[in-house]
Design goal:
The complex is a heterotrimer.
Chain A lengths: L2 E12 L2 E12 L3 E5 L6 H9 L6 E6 L2 E2 L5 H6 L2 E3 L12 H10 L9 H15 L14 H14 L4 E5 L7 H16 L3 E5 L3 H7 L2 E6 L2 E6 L1 H15 L5
Parallel strand pairs in A: 3-8, 3-9, 6-7, 7-8
Antiparallel strand pairs in A: 1-2, 1-4, 4-5, 9-10
Helix pairs in contact in A: 3-4, 3-5, 4-5
Chain B lengths: L1 H31 L6 H17 L5 H22 L9 H23 L14 E4 L2 E4 H23 L1 H11 L3 H4 L4 H26 L7 H15 L4 H21 L5 H15 L10
Antiparallel strand pairs in B: 1-2
Helix pairs in contact in B: 1-5, 1-8, 1-9, 1-10, 2-3, 2-4, 2-8, 2-9, 3-8, 5-6, 5-8, 6-8, 9-10, 9-11, 10-11
Chain C lengths: L4 H15 L6 H26 L7 H17 L5 H23 L4 H19 L11 E2 L6 H23 L2 H11 L1 H6 L4 H27 L1 E2 L1 H4 L2 H14 L6 H19 L4 H15 L3 H12 L2 H10 L2
Antiparallel strand pairs in C: 1-2
Helix pairs in contact in C: 2-6, 2-9, 2-11, 2-12, 3-4, 3-5, 3-9, 4-9, 6-7, 6-9, 7-9, 11-12, 11-14, 12-13
The chains are: A alpha/beta, B mainly alpha, C mainly alpha.
Chain lengths: 244, 287, 316
């Protein structure tokens, strides 16, 4: 299996503080890689480094065989890396469908050039995530779970090859989590590789092909979800029952 | 050499006054996230308050200063409590607009009440001066400098030590933090804004002793206060002192070596540069 | 019929406005010229402020460059008026790109203050430049033709409005709006934010500069203080915000309403006109922060509650 994303020696320092320290991993073509770790472990920082919201202090990011660590965020988006934000960032003044249309207009390879085509694509993705019925409402009128769906639809409309999901299930109830898991599985069925950060252990165990554990900005475990989660109990005991 | 020393001293004295001018603006901006375009109007009103307390009430202008500050404090409190509190959560430029509107209203009222004539606060000791290592120092300038510095340091201590001061600083981080100190946020906002206004008013009183005043002095002083607040950073009164002294020196030396008409090129040019290179100010914390 | 109205009404208004100078008194025409110029300025600001969300206080620099570009070209080099306008427009684009690149990296208040400072710097520089007449300013050749100035100003406003109309329904405009709504999110969705912002700044600048050029030739006298006047910049913002920022017609409506109000005030109670203008701003910002367009859209359904709701939404 070829790798869509290869990360080598990724490091990020914030004025003295090391948020991510020499982390290397790869996301295979069509794979779902889960990323877990306690708060402040550097998970969101890694997503921001891959998406270009942050620039790495050092390290190499290779996406589809091409080095991208120096490219600005919008170029990486055009190369078809999509992401969601943990703190959701809908465009509050736009309607739901127009929020998603922005992804279709820009996104991978520059996206659609005409508004009506983009809106059509947007409706398709809203349907895909189960939000079609709210397409014409204002984005800031959506509740928590629907905002998560919107966030997902916006990223999908970019037609990404790699999707970075930052806690899309946080704050959802069990039924809603099941729904999102189904959506994510559908996304993978479209051939999209996924890096997913999650706190909900059950969900990430069911979803991921492989799992990676981050602690204090360093990778401390990687492998099959069941094995890693078993290991985690050992690590937890070692670290003094820190919530991982 | 003597000339440079004299210019240096002039710059320092001017800078002390500048620091006090900008202090209130930085406080209100840093804590309430309100960019107050009416700041200069408070400076102007403080100057008039001092002027009338001196000419009408025969109170020495330096003694009138606290009274003038109290008057402007009350005005600032009312404006924040009953006008600005109504819009603090709206879009960014609405606060710019409304404070501009307030500036217009205050300026026109001043023009109607005080007329557009130039006035000066002129105490009997205005002309006297002393020599300091070959430079001439007017007493008024030196007092002004000392008062400005004392108030700035006083504010710094107040924000760090006093309970209310800490509540104000906590509010800068988090709106609801004020409740932890048992203060109603609405009142706290009003007090903070009033404090900023009072500091401007105090600066105005001092300004009136070293320069002429009319109802229109506000706007350029607002702009200058911005420059100082940004150069010094918003989170530390002592940074504002540095910003004020820096700008005072830059203006004095620019006036001498390049020409008096270039002082605003220098000061605002530096402001733009600081913003581009280091938006949190020379001494401010990094983002 | 209701559906066709938005497509018929604007052209109709333009035709009526274009015909106006042949019926109206000279005073009305003069009022028309200054109002059309202000509406153009407000519409131009709408591109960078209303659509892109960058509260520019530096548009008065564009205005000043337009004024001085035209004046210097005509007075010092004896060039025709349209060449002068071209020079002004070109200067504003150069300024927008050279200074926009670093300054547009600043967000929120910091951008506002930086542009405000730039306006001060430019004003001070121009008053020290000999070719620009220094502090004394320049006197342009007199041209008696208010009708021409009127039609020119109207044409420019139409052009600026068509541009904004295009923005409101194009990929480019969506890019700007997404920057306004959330710049980080826009960037990770593939919007080249720097490029979009600079183009928006330049577009805003060109129309502002051209308006400045018309104004300079019309009043035939330019000097640094009024050319780079910050209060004019604030006026642009107020008119746009009063009408409805980020809408196609808001800034025009805002300009016409506020100009009429201040004109009426100036004739009825001249000494209190300024004071009243300030009060109007304060009251408008408190009760209708989203502008007249939003008011018209929602007051039918909400009535008086529209105002109380605004206050409730925004107060502490």
């Amino acid at each position: 299996m070829g790798a869509i994303l290869e990360v080598k020696g990724l490091t990020k320092r914030f004025s003295g503080l090391v948020a991510v320290n020499n982390v290397s991993f790869r996301v295979g073509e069509g794979e779902i890689l889960g990323l877990i770790g306690p708060n402040g472990a550097g998970k969101t920082t890694i997503v921001s480094l891959i998406s270009g919201t942050l620039r790495p202090t050092s390290g190499v990011l290779r996406f589809a065989g091409r080095e991208i660590q120096t490219l600005p965020a919008f170029r990486r988006a055009q190369l078809s890396i999509g992401r969601t934000f943990q703190v959701m960032k809908p465009f509050p003044g736009l309607s739901v469908v127009d929020n998603v249309a922005v992804g279709a207009l820009f996104g991978s390879g520059g996206g659609h050039s005409d508004l009506s085509g983009a809106r059509e694509a947007a409706r398709h993705w809203l349907d895909f995530v189960g939000l079609a019925h709210r397409a014409d409402q204002h984005a800031d009128s959506l509740g928590g779970p629907d905002r998560k769906r919107l966030e997902l639809a916006k990223a999908l409309a970019m037609k990404p090859k790699l999707l970075l999901l930052d806690e899309v299930m946080a704050g959802l109830n069990l039924v809603e989590i099941d729904e999102v898991i189904e959506v994510v599985k559908k996304v993978r069925a479209e051939g999209i590789s996924i890096l997913v950060i999650e706190h909900v252990m059950k969900a990430i165990q069911r979803l991921s092909d492989r799992l990676m554990v981050l602690h204090h900005g360093e990778k401390i475990a990687e492998g099959h979800p069941d094995e890693v989660l078993n290991d985690i109990h050992v690590i937890e005991a070692y670290l003094g029952r820190r919530r991982v | 050499m003597d000339l440079i020393w004299q210019i240096f001293l002039n710059g320092i004295f001017l800078g002390g006054l500048y620091a006090l001018m900008a202090l209130g603006l930085a406080l209100v901006w840093g804590v309430l996230n309100i960019v107050n375009l009416a700041h200069g109007a408070f400076i102007m009103l403080g100057a008039y308050a001092c002027y009338y307390l001196y000419t009408g009430g025969h109170i020495d202008p330096f003694l009138a200063l606290p009274l003038a500050m109290l008057i402007i404090f009350a005005l600032g409190y009312l404006i924040q409590r009953f006008v600005l509190n109504l819009i603090v959560r709206s879009a960014m430029f609405t606060t710019l607009l409304i404070t501009f509107g307030i500036d217009v209203v205050l300026t026109y009222m001043a023009q109607i009440i005080f007329t557009a004539d130039f006035k000066t606060i002129n105490p009997p000791y205005a002309g006297s001066n002393f020599q300091l290592f070959g430079a001439t120092v007017p007493y008024v300038q030196m007092f002004t400098f000392v008062v400005a510095l004392a108030v700035t340091v006083g504010l710094s201590v107040f924000l760090r030590r006093a309970r209310l001061g800490r509540a104000i600083r906590a509010t800068a981080q988090n709106l609801t933090a004020a409740r932890l100190y048992g203060v109603n946020p609405r009142t706290l906002y009003a007090i903070t804004f009033a404090l900023g206004a009072a500091l401007a008013g105090g600066a105005g009183g001092l300004y009136g002793m070293v320069s002429q005043i009319n109802p229109y002095i506000g706007a350029p002083l607002t702009a200058k206060s911005f420059a100082i607040a940004i150069i010094g950073g918003l989170d530390n009164p002592l940074g504002v002192i540095v910003g004020g002294l820096f700008l005072g020196l830059v203006e004095s030396f620019t006036a001498l070596y390049i020409g008096p008409t270039y002082t605003s090129v220098a000061s605002f040019g530096i402001l733009v540069l600081v913003l581009i290179i280091r938006p949190t100010g020379i001494l401010g914390r990094t983002a | 019929m209701r559906k066709a109205l938005p497509w018929i009404l604007p052209p109709l208004v333009v035709v009526i406005l274009a015909a106006l100078p042949w019926f109206a008194s000279p005073t009305i025409i003069q009022f028309g010229i200054s109002t059309l110029i202000l509406a153009t300025l407000s519409q131009s600001w709408n591109i960078i402020g209303g659509y892109t969300g960058y509260a520019s206080f530096g548009n008065s620099v564009f205005y000043g460059l337009g004024i001085y570009g035209t004046a210097v070209a005509m007075v010092q080099f004896g060039l025709p008026f349209w060449v002068g306008m071209l020079v002004g427009g070109l200067l504003s684009v150069v300024f927008a790109v050279l200074l926009g690149l670093p300054v547009l990296r600043l967000r929120g208040h910091y951008f506002a203050i930086a542009t405000l400072a730039l306006a001060q710097v430019m004003s001070a520089i121009v008053s020290n430049v000999q070719v620009a007449g220094g502090n004394q300013g320049l006197v342009l050749p007199l041209f008696r033709g208010d009708k021409m100035f009127y039609e020119l100003a109207l044409g420019l406003l139409v052009l600026a409005t068509l541009t904004v109309f295009w923005l409101s329904r194009s990929r480019f405009g969506f890019g700007l709006i997404s920057i306004r709504e959330d710049e980080d999110a826009a960037a990770v969705m593939g919007v080249n934010t720097t490029y979009y912002k600079v183009i928006a700044f330049a577009l805003s600048g060109v129309f502002t500069a051209l308006a400045g050029g018309i104004h300079a030739y019309w009043i035939t006298f330019v000097e640094p203080e009024s050319a780079f006047d910050i209060t004019l910049n604030v006026k642009m913002i107020i008119m746009a915000v009063f009408g409805g920022p980020g809408s196609v017609f808001g800034p025009i409506v805002g300009a016409f309403v506020l100009q009429s109000v201040s004109e009426i005030l100036a004739t009825k109670i001249s000494s209190l006109a300024g004071l009243f203008f300030g009060l109007v701003i304060v009251v408008a910002v408190v009760f209708m922060p989203k502008g007249l367009i939003d008011l018209r859209k929602r007051i039918g359904r909400l009535g008086w509650r529209y105002f109380t709701r605004n206050v409730k939404e925004n107060r502490l």
